[in-house]
């Protein structure tokens, strides 16, 4: 890939996105921007989970646990450095830099957590991962609730309100770019091969465990980013924001959108977060609706709305990206003999 | 020494409960290769059906042994039926699909039960159903009597629970290894396709397996509720996961393995929590799981099976 193309693929989305985000930042006020940011954070979570559950065909149920790792790391850093100002920089810029560093540290820690959880469970068949990640999600909660340093059950309050539309927007762009480019890379091809048939992939020389663990770490890192953004949006970091229920919500988004479809995850995350915003009054029905949706979806259309296709695959051929696989070649859940789980 | 023995008693009483639930996981995994996520919630439903029955029979006002027996047996039947319904409508249509599909459905069923039971009660039903999120207390069918041999506290509930659990496990052992149904079950577990070709009604065997496992879960719930009467819709979540860990530890798909795994997990949890930090109790099982997966992923009694193409 030429440097120019690499630039186009990696930085162009940011270059295009930045002015749009700045305008949005200036025009959105109050609850509308908060709802939009919360939905945006869900997009980051769903797209990053899709790397494991969609591309790789594994099944993680502890995404919120990784978000918690990122969130607590970032929250500790920003509260710890609340009065620190980087020498020679204006207050605003210094704060933003510290926030960026905090988010990055959160991503790193979440990735490490991903390594620790992924190593033992990803060597085995898929369904163990579901249980181990679920267990991890619970362990994280137990650890937080018993650690005074992390504020126990009450959590860390008084976080600076650093998250804004710009940060969330950049986070979404970074996550989506990561996912789309990953899917088209050698690494991504290996992941898709593992999803389609793990034994065949292994026979072809794909280091299945290695690729799975790396995909899992990438996914965890971006969950950590979302966690860091979330707690600096609500300015409170408690274990309640990262329960098992949150993990299931994200799984529901990925499954609804179609496991393996980045745009599907985005559409589903936005649809579910925004439509359920209207259902806030009947909060207790939320999880019942999610669970019913999961069951019905699996019975009726297990590939989700988009399957493994992206929106651009559904457009007329003229608009389709070059080199994109023809739609409908591979869909999880319908392949014959596919060892998906 | 007294403390050590006390933990032993507590660990065994907890372990038998884990073992009973683990059996359901392991049997279903054996025949379907599916982690039945909803199993922990079947356990929860067992506790609540016992609760409603006990209230309907007036166990709290006039406790008696035959009422306890009726509550016990009918709850097991209700759960057996529930297990069969879940299998019929949620899992059977997906049996030929990818395993992930069934796993997601199982998670959906689990959440449907957990959160469906947390909804506010339907008015005009006469009983508070669904029970809602606040914990309820299971009425005691008989007076708690405690003994202290060698300074170790043992209640009559501990003894009854242990005896009933062991009896149920022996009965299951008999069913699985000595009856026609058990033979069919083991055949389906070995290779369901070939078993079907040999004239075994695979659907009926799978439904029966779900019924057996779910009935054991209900029994576990009632035995557990005897000494720890607080029940709520989310009670099956952690307990179910721990029982699953026990099943994996014993070698998933292996019936005696689940019993041993359950007992060992109960003891491990009791000793670790007792001698170190008790607040980390819920984390122990999962640390255990990770160690088992690293060291011996096939479990204590599991066999390594080569993955066939």
What features would you describe in this structure?
The complex is a heterodimer of chains A (341) and B (309). By secondary structure, chain A is an all-alpha fold. In chain A, 70% of the residues lie in helices and 1% in strands. Chain A is built from 14 helices and two strands; from the N terminus they run H-H-H-H-H-H-E-H-H-H-H-E-H-H-H-H. Chain A has helices spanning 3-10, 12-27, 30-55, 63-80, 91-122, 126-146, 165-184, 186-196, 198-203, 208-234, 244-257, 262-277, 283-300, 311-314, and strands at 156-157, 236-237. Chain A has a two-stranded antiparallel sheet with strand order 1-2. With 309 residues, chain B is mainly α. Chain B is built from eleven helices and four strands, in the order ααααβββααααβααα. Chain B has helices spanning 2-32, 39-57, 65-91, 99-116, 156-178, 180-190, 192-197, 202-227, 235-250, 255-275, 281-295, and strands at 136-137, 146-147, 154-155, 230-231. Chain B is globular. The model of chain B has no long low-confidence stretch (mean pLDDT 88). Chains A and B meet through helix 5, helix 6, helix 11 and helix 13 of A and helix 4, helix 9 and helix 11 of B.
